[in-house]
Design a protein that fits this description.
Strand order of the largest sheet of chain A: 3-4-14-9-10-13
Structural class of chain B: alpha/beta
Helix content of chain B: 40-55%
Order of helices and strands of chain A: EEHHEHEHEHEHHEHEHEHEHEEHEHHEH
Distance between the termini of chain A: 50 Å
Number of strands of chain A: 14
Number of helices of chain A: 15
Radius of gyration of chain B: 17 Å
Oligomer: heterodimer
Shape of chain A: globular
Order of helices and strands of chain B: HEHEHHEHHEHEEHEHEHEHH
Radius of gyration of chain A: 19 Å
Low-confidence stretches of chain A: none
Helix content of chain A: 40-55%
Distance between the termini of chain B: 26 Å
Largest sheet of chain A: 6 strands, mixed
Chain lengths: 393, 256
Amino acid sequence: MDRYFGRFGGMYAPETLMPALLEIEEEFCKLVKDEKFNQEYEYYLKNYVGRPSPLYFAKNLSEHLGVKIYLKREDINHTGAHKINNCIGQALLAKHMGKKRLIAETGAGQHGVATATVAALFGMECEIFMGEEDAKRQFHNVQRMKMLGSKVRVVNKGSKTLKDAINEAMRDWSETFEYTFYLFGTAAGPHPFPTIVKYFQSVIGKETKEQIKSLEGRLPDYVFACVGGGSNAIGIFSAFLEDHEVKLIGVEGAGEGIHTGKTAATLCSGSVGILHGAKTYILQDEEGQIQNTHSISAGLDYPGVGPEHAYLKETGRVEYVGATDKEAVDAFLLLTRLEGIIPALESSHALAEVIKRAKMGLFKSSDIIVVNLSGRGDKDINTVLELWKDDEL
Amino acid sequence: MNLIDERFERLKKEGKKAFIGYVTFGYPSFEETLGFIKLVYSYVDILEIGFPFSDPIADGEIIQKASIKALSEGVKLSHLFESIEKFKKDKPVVLMLYANTVYKRGIDRFFESSKACGVDGVIIPDVSFEESFEFKEAAEKFGVTYIDLVSISSLERAKMIGKQSKGFLYCVSRKGVTGFKGQIEDRIFTFLRELKTVTPTPLAVGFGIKGKEDVQKFKDLADGIVIGSAIITKIDEGKDKLEDFLKEISESLKDK
């Protein structure tokens, strides 16, 4: 199994963790070829997660913006986001490996909730690491995880957000890997996680491709997805990477603006470095210290990005741009009002870029656009309420 | 012969074990750090200086806190290089820092500057053996010893790494991060014995060694002992306490 995507990726991990990572790689390689495992995974995707998720034609939004827009409804999945696809897959892998305990990091809480959910489903012990800032922002998700029977370890070190939750989870794992499986939530981290997460999220792209062909008889012109670590984006992009006529756009959390210093737009304003096990783009200062990030969306508030995205940026296959907090909130409100769908603030960034381009007249009226609606926005209502004024629309 | 090899040779002849002491550069403050570093240097056989990183995943709470404090003091790599030049004598100095600090400076440029200021060896705890080759190549080019780490979590890998190791082999005595939690597991002794059979490189044991009693346990099996978190804790207690501790460890390693 290749550790690298071009010059990105790798296994930059403490020696203590290497046997654990190599064991996961070996078991994963075996399992993906195992028909019984794949049948079990698909069974849960269909009957527990609720797949396939619809590809919904957003008629009102399309009319409003003058271009045909489809939404891949990952928000309809059980637990409310794409995260569950990966969690079911990795939890089955963990079970197969005989691990009794799951640990996971979470930013917005969606991955934490999904991990706590599969732990309940499969009867495993579970502990979720969450930065103190994020735990405050996502109070309800913290309560959900606890109700599901998981422990939540609030991390009050560093910037108290996702990167610190990952650091702490890695530390725990290096001590407990004999009985613990680290259920990594995004397509980042040391090999083999980027490949594993992509594998389990590629269902999004496969379904989208079939659905759009059956609805429109052809491939879309554009696919938009938000990028924090990049798991939903790599999931939907994966099916279209060889279809060069499909333009793939990854939208990062630009915070107050890409060049303001208050941003989480790693690919747009970062540089190549090594963080959390992989060589990839990161937000760092001149000395190589990791910078604090800012995004209104806890799920995008990460100074790194999956190494395959770094590769796709460098090869030019995917275009990466940033949407600001304000643009994301505007998009959140617009979709809510026009379609009765409350999107996650993460997904709102992808929508914001579509809105921006439509307003600038960058689409042809015949264009078909797919936006990966990676999750639902119930968890973000408090955040939006701080900014929302009801005369804004 | 480089200073690290020379030091181990000499200690072997004298029937002694190496005392490898760790300090975080920039701790407890920008002004005081050099004083503490010099004090530790005067007692140890090999000085290990940790350069702080914002996200130190291989370190436990004590070194992590020290790193955060040191970063808040505004320390830079150039300050570290300048400081080493000021005190370096005939005892080896080894840097411990994270991959991104080296990568950001440029791997070649980093090893070139390290050599120029008197660094003898470099330890990068988040670079696995698999990813170490570009770092090793640059280290060799500029005459700096690249120190490999091995972990109790896999004897098989430790043997593979040990066969190619240079300077000393840093043996992580317990699962997890730096700093002491619980008892040292007995299997470390079998691990060291087995490792000895495949490599002539001196073995240095670290992670979780907190005092004289732990040192005694390893004296017959290891060629050196690394003490980090315990030194940082003593720095917090002041120079006198630190000096007493360094004396005690140093003497216990020299007892036959």
